[in-house]
Specification:
Layout: E1 2-4, H1 8-14, H2 33-39, H3 45-55, E2 60-65, E3 72-76, E4 82-88, E5 99-101
Antiparallel strand pairs: 1-5, 2-3, 3-4
Length: about 100
């Protein structure tokens, strides 16, 4: 048995749009929609955490490097879309979804 993270191609080809959605962690509090609308363009990390909670899904890391530089990794966004440009790896509130390869 081998554990690993999917890369962008695997996430696109092996999972449906619905399967790429990751339910957010239960510890993240929901915020009212009006409050979200007021801050949705703010990119500070704590605001992005609120964005995750409102949608009820979380972004998750892929194993390939993002297109911007060596400090970026590709992700699956809250809406299930694969972002090959990636996000900066300091974002500790993104999830991981390990895959298992089982050889018989």
């Amino acid at each position: 048995m081998h554990w690993y993270l999917l890369n962008s191609d695997e996430a696109l080809n092996l999972l449906s749009d619905k399967q790429r959605l990751a339910k957010g962690a239960t510890f993240v509090e929901k915020i009212p929609k009006a409050e979200f609308e007021a801050i949705k363009d703010d990119t500070r990390p704590y605001v992005e955490k609120l964005y995750v909670s409102l949608l009820g899904t979380s972004p998750w890391w892929l194993r390939d490097r993002g297109a911007k530089d060596e400090n970026y990794a590709s992700i699956v966004q809250n809406d299930g879309l694969v972002d090959s440009d990636g996000h900066h790896v300091h974002r500790t509130y993104y999830g991981i979804r390990p895959a298992i390869k089982y050889l018989i």
